[in-house]
Amino acid sequence: MTKTAALLSRLNFTRRRVLTASLATASIAFAAVTFLVPTPAQAQRSSGPSEVPMEALMKPIDGLEDIVLGNPEAKVAVVEYASLTCGHCSHFHKENFPALKKKYIDAGKISFIMREFPLDNLAAAGAMLARCAPNGKIYAMTDLLFNTQADWAYVQGNPVPKLFEIAKQAGFTQETFDKCLKDQKLLDQINAQRSRAADQFGVSATPTFFVNGKKLQGAPNVEAFDAMIEPLLK
User: Fold this and answer.
1) Dihedral of the alpha carbons of 44, 195, 86, 100, in degrees to the nearest 10
2) How many CA atoms within 13 Å lie on the side-chain side of 133?
3) Domains plus CATH for the chain?
């Protein structure tokens, strides 16, 4: 096991039964931990509440700043919980998010917050790297990881070298890459965010969206967001 692979093997989450089926570890780098993820049918059965209190939803985890896109004073707030190894999350950010951003975020009509809900060690590593991105470019790093997901999230064997090659495009060096993945405090904060989303808000699958506290039902396409956002803007 390489030094960097060993770093990722240390990304051990508290074992919580917040999700409903076990996922076998994908490589030797992650052999120490088994994660629990839902099948689609189980995710539907464990859908959680349809609405959560806005005051609770909008409170960030201590030390883990929410990075807001759009107008922070907008009367409509969209919060997404996503995992960087989630194929549906990647599809949303590549196929639907650009239109949502143009129509509502760039126009200042809503605020948008993406929060980390990693489903496995590799997603946790990606979330940490996004948080460590040079010059605070968390969303740029997130976009890069979603756009290259097939190159690093589903590779056979050790995914670390490919993940580092992608991180270098965002300005990481080997030193900053390793330092980020050894940041236990950051990992604990991301883990706390995932646990709170599961325990308090009933998040059990990704992506999960809340619009002013109400959970988006169905596929997260622009039409679904229109149906929820437009009445709130009147």
Assistant:
1) 80
2) 19
3) 3-233 (3.40.30.10)
